[in-house]
Amino acid sequence: MNWSIVLIHNGHQKYLRYNLDLLSRLIPDSDIFLAGNDSNKEIAEEFGQCIWVSIDTLVAADTSYEAFVQNYKHFSINHLRYERFCFERWFILLNLAKHYRLQNFLYLDTDNFLLTPPAVLLDEYPDFHYGQTIDPGAPEFLFFSK
Length: 146
What we know:
Layout: E1 4-9, H1 14-26, E2 32-36, H2 41-45, E3 50-54, H3 55-59, H4 63-71, H5 80-100, E4 104-108, H6 118-124, E5 141-145
Parallel strand pairs: 1-2, 1-4, 2-3
Antiparallel strand pairs: 4-5
Helix pairs in contact: 4-5
């Protein structure tokens, strides 16, 4: 089974290029989606299998997203922009999956590096119905299958 990879990222940090390079070598036959902003579009274009999608376009008509942003109350010690984006990414991910009709995909935080192809991981753990990182409060790595 071929798994698509989805990353969501604002900004132009150096590690993003390294992650895309690693993914393109590790799983050369998989689509890699990067939902991002203008500052990282060029990085995505360096990798032929990477499909860059504007975050703004993905959420433009999403009334649920707009309602969330308007009603969000910030209580964290983290910066507002960072913390709210941790929630916004789920709206972005849902809209991307719907738009591209993704059936089987892996969501990966851009500062986490996948070192084993998804198919190998799933073969090793056939009885699991989902997968994520060890910390359930920080889902940096999730499999989705429809």
